[in-house]
Amino acid sequence: MTRLVLLGPPGAGKGTQAARVAERLGVPAISTGDIFRANVAEGTDLGKLAQRYMDSGEYVPDEVTNEMVADRLTQPDAVGGFLLDGYPRTEAQVRELDDMLAGAGTALTRVVELTADPEEVVARLLNRAQEQGRADDTEDVIRRRLEVYAEQTAPLVSLYSERGLLVRVDGMGDVVEVTQRLLAALDAD
Ligand code: AMP
User: Fold this and answer.
1) 118-137 per-position pLDDT tens digit
2) Where do the domains of the chain lie?
3) Between 125 and 171, where is the model more confident?
4) Pocket of ligand 1 contains residue 86 by CB under 6 Å
5) Is residue 134 annotated as a catalytic residue, yes or no?
6) Where would you tag: which of 29, 125, 131, 137 has the fewest CB atoms within 10 A of its CB?
7) CATH class of the domain whose range is 2-180
8) Minimal CA–CA distance to 107: which of 149, 73, 63?
9) Is the separation of the CB atoms in 169 and 181 below 8 Å?
10) Strands lying side by side in the sheet with 166-170
């Protein structure tokens, strides 16, 4: 059974790699950012709430995010495993995820930190801004997202490391090579 979390700063390539690795492992890639963006696009109440935070590079409040993930993880395709991309991002979310999984009699199998060079990350995000026009890819918001990651999410690396769950993979370089590194680190190559 594969129940993975993918951690890493904005611009490390998590979304791209999550989709590729999940496909190889036969589990759904669950991206909280994608779910929020879909809600924004559809104009749901959740989307309206989330957008205010996303546009300024802040995290959507834990209660809202936790409820959304709890709902997603009970859907049939996630019962046999999953790859979480972009969740948990705070210590409160870690605890909540622990409870959700314990409630289902399961637990995480591995946490992967995708590492990236900070300069490269900003360059990648600015490039994505031009290509995809994401509202939160302006330079100011990118800097804020990196700060929020450092403050709130980077501490999760040592938390999961202390639990013996963490593997660290270099996210720099060619997309195909990074996927190979990830699969090798997960003993799935
Ligand atoms: P991402 O696509 O993962 O970079 O997420 C885009 C934005 O969605 C983030 O900057 C946050 O505003 C919001 N978001 C995504 N995941 C979470 C989360 N786990 N907790 C809080 N906010 C989140």
Assistant:
1) 888 888 888 888 888 777 88
2) 2-180
3) 171
4) yes
5) yes
6) 131
7) alpha beta
8) 73
9) yes
10) 29-31, 81-85, 2-7, 110-115, 166-170
